[in-house]
């Protein structure tokens, strides 16, 4: 049986954003409601004002429900590279945690030391790409293909890379702790595995269980 490790779960919550006008109305209404409530205790509140107070309560309720409905929504990705062909691009050192690269074709590009924790690279193709020091912690790399690429000191901790292919890659110092890999990928990686990751201080062969 193959040694496989499940990917750690991730959850992203969106941030509710109300319009400026609605926000101002909400704040003003809330303040009035507090004043009206105090006046009502002293029986100083006219009938019409009581009606307006109830209207304020309704507005507060509507705005509150709207905020709750948006709270669980996922925000739009800042950078959507799905199905894109990226040739000769320089992404070195960039934070890509709000991006997606599903089925992207990446060739002759520089992705060294990118922050790609939890990023989706499902079915992505990496050809002649520099991925040195890239952080793919908990990333989705299922069906991804790495060909003649530099993965020196890259981190794949907890990555879901089942069915990923690695051909002609350099993985000196790469960390595959708890990565979900097939047996054939493990065997191919163990043939070239060596070194220790400078960030996690883990031995590459040990993270792949090459000698067990």
Structure description:
This protein is α/β, with parallel strands linked by helices. Helices cover 28% and strands 9% of the residues. It has helices at residues 20-41, 47-71, 183-190, 204-207, and strands spanning 79-80, 85-87, 99-100, 105-107, 125-127, 145-147, 165-167. It has a 5-stranded parallel beta sheet. The radius of gyration is 26 Å and the shape is globular. 32% of the residues are buried.
Beta-strand residue percentage: 5-15%
Radius of gyration computed on alpha carbons: 26 Å
Oligomeric state of the chains in view: single chain
Helix content: 25-40%
User: How does the major sheet shape up?
Assistant: 5 strands, parallel
Number of strands: 7
Count of helical segments?
Answer: 4
First-last Cα distance: 13 Å
Quote the average pLDDT. 78
Structural class: alpha/beta
- Uncertain stretches of 5 or more adjacent residues: 1-24, 59-76
Question: Which H/E pattern describes the elements?
Answer: HHEEEEEEEHH
Strand order of the largest sheet: 2-4-5-6-7
Which descriptor suits the 3D outline? globular
């Amino acid at each position: 049986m193959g040694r496989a490790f499940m990917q750690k779960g991730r959850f992203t919550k969106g941030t509710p954003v109300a319009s400026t006008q609605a926000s101002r109305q909400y704040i003003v209404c809330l303040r009035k409601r507090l004043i009206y409530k105090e006046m009502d205790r002293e029986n100083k509140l006219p009938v019409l004002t009581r009606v307006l107070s109830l209207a304020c309560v309704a507005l507060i309720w509507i705005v509150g429900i709207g905020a709750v409905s948006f709270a669980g929504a996922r925000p739009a990705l800042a950078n959507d590279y799905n199905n894109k062909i990226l040739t000769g691009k320089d992404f070195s050192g960039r934070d890509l945690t709000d991006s997606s690269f599903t089925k992207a074709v990446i060739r002759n590009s520089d992705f060294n030391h990118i922050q790609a924790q939890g990023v989706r690279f499902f079915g992505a193709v990496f050809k002649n790409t520099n991925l040195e020091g890239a952080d793919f912690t908990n990333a989705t790399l299922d069906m991804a293909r790495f060909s003649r690429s530099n993965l020196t000191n890259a981190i794949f901790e907890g990555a879901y890379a089942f069915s990923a292919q690695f051909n002609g890659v350099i993985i000196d110092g790469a960390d595959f702790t708890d990565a979900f890999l097939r047996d054939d990928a493990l065997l191919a990686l163990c043939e070239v595995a060596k070194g220790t990751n400078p960030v996690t201080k883990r031995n590459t062969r040990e993270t792949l269980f090459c000698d067990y």
